[in-house]
From TrEMBL:
This is DUF5686 and carboxypeptidase regulatory-like domain-containing protein. It comes from the Bacteria. Residues 1-24 form the signal peptide. Gene3D superfamilies: Carboxypeptidase-like, regulatory domain, Lipoprotein localisation LolA/LolB/LppX. Pfam families: CarbopepD_reg_2, DUF5686. It comes from Chryseobacterium formosus. Keywords: Signal.
Length: 842
């Protein structure tokens, strides 16, 4: 064993040795020559170690570099030369001779560089095609999947600018007393003004584990928003515009619309590629390939790819939409991507910048618009360090509003780059606007239109404003007035109520519900409510829980044929719910209700029980629900959350137990239900909406408690209903339904010369239902012969729709043409029908 003195001397020796090595290796010098001619070369970029920034650009053939840290590698790059990498040690740090070669730098037999688009007889003659083939062979995966554990920092900045402002616009009356905001505007290249109006900064810490168990966590550690901390509409809109993309995927997701990736394996079916140059990108030699869509009417990009000449990794890419982009409210999209490539199989995101130009009116470049810019910097990657299980546990403090509040000193060091003068002005300008009554009125109008509620005083909102008027056969004209409590976007409790009056039946209706959340981490919540109202039952199979869920009767203003099949419902419910795991909810509802026909002369809900004729169905039941939303993203942490746009599926499993005798309930019964919904991107062919439902009543129950295959006798678009079915046409103990709706995003109509100018989009759909109804379930109802299930064959409907109808960038109208496929011999069936409605989305 070494003595204490021996240890001291050994430590001193190691320190001296290390110091000597460091001194010897923190500087290097030499000359750079052409390998063939031996002539000195100038204009060479010299990179130290793995730095992405050149330490020196030579002006002669000699170089000399120094560093505060040990130099163990130098990289030399110059246009039209292969890059050269040299390992540096104590022995070779001085008087280096670097020879650069002009020889071919890849295994491709021939590289022809063109500055203009060149047409080839076949894609195999195109040198860009041969390069892209190598990229596809070496298709890389995100490096985060490679390591046992990983952590990294993510800095996100989102800014909105009002663009193309001119003096006439700035002199409008609306800006009276607000004209100081133009002091913060900035001149653009066109001579017009751009005014920053919103800035949001966020810093996340990402944790992940791949082995032994796969889990991840994205922790928001800091957030700063320019004056809109309490504005759920603007902040959510900003976050909701963007999706994470991987350039190697065949389809890139923008606004949940699929754009073909120029790096995808089927890219040549959409794009023309042209090799234009070889350049240095962050010290790496790269092919610069220009790509553009073969047809400008399709949803596709144009821009450049930067492909490493040795490893065929994507070092960077630019993606810019065409002038004919067919997306609602959007004039243009552009994205710049940078990647690090640690090895031959993986990549790591480095920086993404996306700009979206939005305008509701015109596609002209001169139109006044909003530029929404998002930049994300990924840094501080760390791999294979042990991570404690507690890191992945959701903690109470993470859901506190003050958790993300940081001072200016924190932000000054946390930002990868300092804010520009214009960006700094956003915070100052919006602080002033918060004290301007006119500005607050504009914000209030915006929030009212988006949330459908009008704030009358602190804590009280009136609405929803879209439910004020309705019409149906029983009530005639119907007026509904409601309100809710609303103090902040993260309220832990909410009370809502409404009153309604029918001018035909002269009856008042009401509903009230309260909810309280005890814990924001697992969203442990309780609630209770009661209502008395006229309702159209049978428009949903897997029904929404909650007293104030949709009342379909009040929303039907125009309908095909007369609808008298409405029910009068008195209902009281209590519930509790919890999320033991993220995006997985367990919910228990207890419901007591009485149901009878709201129009006995036109709609019969009477049934037999023990030989007695009953008009009212008394029911008490308990429902146990499992609801999964894997991949869903939400804003806010109160009783109400606002969901970000994703392609997350919805999976629901429900078991309902009816309890005879509880609060005078008439029936014992058991019901099991399942629902699955998923949007699916299918590359350049658009998006499919898939929905499947199945269920079974294990006991005999009257019509009021049965499963009704959802019909739609309105002229409006109602999801997951059958357009050509009448209400209560099909009733089933056991059922399964499927809805498949595909949005082509204009891919077919863009081939038709005259129609393509209208920028219409096509939709195709098919719906089916199958089920059975027992004789006992038929016989319990007075109108037993009237009800049947689609058990002879699968009932189906099919059709197509035209969407994106409108003008300018406002194209929110849709028309569907529906055909009934079978069961055509029934009385009062509608073989063909047209539905229409507004469809808000990109």
């Amino acid at each position: 064993m070494m003595s204490t003195n021996q240890l001291k001397y050994c430590f001193l020796y190691i320190c001296l040795l290390f110091s000597g090595l460091s001194y010897a290796q923190n500087a290097a010098n030499g000359k750079i020559i052409d390998e063939k001619t031996n002539k000195e070369i100038s204009g060479v970029e010299v990179f130290i170690n793995d730095s992405n920034k050149a330490a020196l650009t030579t002006t002669t053939g000699n170089f000399s570099v120094q560093s505060d840290s040990i130099i163990y590698k130098l990289k030399f790059t110059r246009k039209n030369y292969a890059f050269e990498t040299v390992d540096i040690s104590v022995d070779n740090a001085n008087n280096l001779v670097i020879k650069l070669s002009q020889e071919k730098v890849s295994s491709i037999e021939e590289v022809v560089i063109h500055n203009e688009k060149t047409k080839y007889k076949s894609k195999k003659e195109n040198p860009a095609y041969r390069i892209m083939q190598e990229v596809w062979k070496r298709k890389r995966n995100n490096g985060l999947e490679k390591f046992d554990t990983y952590t990294f920092k993510e800095y996100e900045k989102i800014q909105f600018d009002a663009n193309n402002l001119d003096s006439a616009f700035m002199n409008r009356k609306i800006f009276n007393k607000l004209d100081f905001i133009f002091d913060y505007a900035d001149s653009t290249a066109s001579g017009k003004m751009a005014l920053p109006i919103f800035l949001n900064e966020s810093i996340y810490k990402n944790f992940g584990e791949n082995k032994p168990n796969k889990k991840s966590k994205k922790l928001l550690v800091a957030q700063k928003t320019s004056g809109f901390q309490d504005n759920q509409v603007i902040t959510l809109t900003a976050k909701n515009l963007y999706r994470d993309i991987n350039i190697y995927d065949n389809t890139l997701n923008y606004f949940d619309i699929g754009f073909p990736s120029p790096v995808g394996t089927d890219g040549f079916s959409t794009y023309d590629y042209n090799l234009v140059d070889t350049i240095a990108v962050n010290g790496e030699n790269a092919y610069k390939i220009r790509y553009q869509p073969r047809r400008t009417e399709v949803l596709a990009f144009q821009g450049y790819l930067y492909i490493d000449t040795d490893s065929y990794a994507v070092l960077g890419a630019t993606l810019k939409s065409t002038n004919k982009i067919n997306v609602n409210f959007i004039n243009a999209i552009s994205t710049e991507l940078e990647y690090d490539n640690p090895d031959n199989e993986t990549f790591l995101p480095k920086k993404f910048v996306t700009e979206i130009e939005m305008t509701p009116f015109a596609k002209k470049k001169s139109a006044k618009s909003i530029i929404a810019k998002r930049s994300v910097d990924y840094s501080e990657y760390d791999f294979n360090r042990p991570l404690a299980d507690s890191i992945f546990t959701r903690k109470k403090e993470e859901y506190d509003d003050s958790f993300v509040e940081k001072d200016e000193a924190f932000w000054a060091t946390a930002r990868p780059d300092s804010l520009s003068k214009q960006e700094q002005g956003v915070y100052e300008m919006l602080d002033k606007l918060q004290h301007t009554p006119k500005f607050n009125r504009i914000i209030k109008l915006t929030e009212t239109l988006a949330s459908r509620y009008y704030n009358v005083t602190k804590g009280i909102d009136l609405g929803p404003i879209t439910s004020i008027y309705g019409k149906n056969e029983v009530e005639g004209d119907r007026i509904r007035l409601g309100a809710r409590t609303y103090f902040t976007q993260n309220d832990p409790w909410r009370v809502e109520f409404y009153n309604a009056y029918g001018f035909k039946d002269h009856q008042f209706k009401y509903g009230v519900e309260g909810r309280y959340m005890f814990n924001r981490v697992n969203r442990f919540m309780v609630g209770a409510g009661t209502k008395r109202d006229i309702t159209q039952l049978g428009v949903q199979l897997t029904t929404e829980d909650g007293i104030l869920s949709r009342s379909f009767a009040s929303s039907t203003v125009f309908a095909r044929g007369e609808n008298a099949s409405l029910s009068s419902v008195n209902q009281t419910s209590v519930f509790t719910s919890i999320e033991p795991w993220k995006n997985f909810q367990i919910r228990v509802d207890g419901t007591m209700q009485s149901i009878k026909s709201a129009n006995p002369d036109g709609f019969n809900l009477m049934y037999y029980q023990n030989g007695n004729l009953r008009k009212t169905t008394n029911d008490s039941h308990v429902t146990f629900s499992l609801i999964a939303r894997p991949g869903a993203k939400f804003s806010q942490t109160g009783v109400d959350r606002y969901e970000h746009g994703t392609l997350a599926p919805t999976i629901v499993l429900k078991y309902t137990r009816g309890i005879e005798g509880l609060f005078n309930a008439d029936f014992n019964y058991n019901k099991l239900q399942f629902m699955f919904y998923k949007p699916i991107l299918l590359g350049s062919w658009g998006r499919t909406l898939f929905s499947f439902e199945a269920g079974k009543n294990f006991d005999t129950v009257p019509l009021a408690l049965q499963n009704i295959i959802p019909g739609n006798q309105s002229y409006g678009l109602v999801p997951n209903t059958f357009a050509q079915l009448n209400y209560y046409e099909f009733v089933a103990d056991t059922y399964s339904t499927m809805h498949i709706e595909h949005h082509f995003n204009g891919k077919i109509l863009s081939f038709i010369p005259l129609i393509k100018k209208l920028k219409l989009r096509e939709v195709a759909f098919i719906r089916g239902a199958y089920g059975s109804l027992s004789d006992d379930s038929k016989n319990i109802n007075v109108d037993n012969l009237k009800y049947s299930a689609p058990d002879q064959q699968i009932y189906y409907e099919y059709g197509f729709g035209i969407e994106n109808i409108g003008f300018g960038n406002i194209r929110i109208f849709r028309v569907d043409f529906n055909w009934r496929g079978n069961y055509l011999d029934r009385q009062d069936v509608s073989k063909f029908g047209i539905k229409a409605g507004f469809q808000f989305g990109f």
